[in-house]
């Protein structure tokens, strides 16, 4: 997966469809930033947008999808992950944006998969006068199974990356907490020593001798 990092407030990126019209990207979304992506879609095409926040803060982001006329098709605030399927109602350029403008100091890592249309058939039906052979049917079944495997691998990689990020964040917090506890214990110990020392000093100063 190509990985993009940007410190700009607004990045306008044109997606280049991969095989089957799928665009799969992982990118860095800085704090107080917004990134938009554009895709040319023909009328009647079925599309699916799926995204997930991998690292950063509370693992949430704002997402918004608009048609060529600016009509909002999908809008969610502070979502960790989601999936949205729609059918293009007209020809034109569709825009979807991810926003981290509500965060003041935490950047995010966001993954999304934008599927445009259906995958082309493994064996096109044009100029065919007979049904698929047993070998061809087996190839189609294997192809579909491999697609499912790829999808599962992608989701497991995302979960592993998110889990690793959470573990590292937890480890950092535990380390800071341990250092803080050690410092507090040291201060309390020194305070107790001085407190006990002050008790004995008071006794020596208040003790007097009376001569006969």
What's the CATH class of the largest domain, please?
A: Mainly Beta
Please tell me the total number of domains. Answer: 2
Helices, by number, come to: 1
Provide the gyration radius in Å. 30 Å
- What are the low-pLDDT stretches, counting only 5+ consecutive residues below 50? 1-19
Look at the structure and give the mean pLDDT: 80
How is the main sheet built? Answer: 5 strands, mixed
**Total number of strands:** 10
What spatial form do the alpha-carbon principal axes imply?
Answer: elongated
- The secondary-structure element order is EEEEEEEEEEH
Keywords: Cytoplasmic vesicle, Endoplasmic reticulum, Glycoprotein, Golgi apparatus, Membrane, Protein transport, Signal, Transmembrane, Transmembrane helix, Transport
Protein name: Transmembrane emp24 domain-containing protein 7
GO biological process, one term: protein transport
Family: Belongs to the EMP24/GP25L family.
Could you explain how this protein is built, in words?
It is a single chain. The chain has 212 residues and is of the alpha+beta class. The protein has 2 domains: 20-118, Jelly Rolls, CATH 2.60.120; 143-198. Helices cover 34% and strands 33% of the residues. It has 1 helix and 10 strands; from the N terminus they run ββββββββββα. The protein has a 5-stranded mixed β-sheet. A hairpin with a 5-residue loop joins strand 6 (61-66) and strand 7. It is elongated and about 105 Å long.
């Amino acid at each position: 997966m190509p990985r993009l990092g940007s410190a700009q407030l607004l990045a306008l990126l044109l997606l280049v469809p991969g095989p089957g019209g799928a665009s799969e990207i992982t990118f860095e979304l800085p704090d107080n930033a917004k990134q938009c992506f554009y895709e040319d879609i023909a009328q009647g095409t079925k599309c699916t947008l799926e995204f997930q926040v991998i690292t950063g803060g509370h693992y949430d982001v704002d997402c918004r999808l608009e048609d060529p006329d600016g009509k909002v098709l999908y809008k969610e605030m502070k979502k960790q992950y989601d999936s949205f399927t729609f059918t293009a109602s007209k020809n034109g350029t569709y825009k979807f944006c991810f926003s981290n403008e509500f965060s003041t100091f935490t950047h995010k890592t966001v993954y999304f998969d934008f599927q445009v249309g259906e995958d082309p058939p493994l064996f096109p039906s044009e100029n065919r006068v007979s049904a698929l052979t047993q070998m061809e049917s087996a190839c189609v079944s294997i192809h579909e199974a491999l697609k499912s495997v790829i999808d599962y691998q992608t989701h497991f990689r995302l979960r592993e990356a998110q889990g690793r990020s959470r573990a590292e964040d937890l480890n950092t917090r535990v380390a800071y907490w341990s250092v803080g506890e050690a410092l507090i214990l040291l201060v309390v110990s020194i305070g107790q020593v001085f407190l006990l020392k002050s008790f004995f000093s008071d006794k020596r100063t208040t003790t007097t001798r009376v001569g006969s």
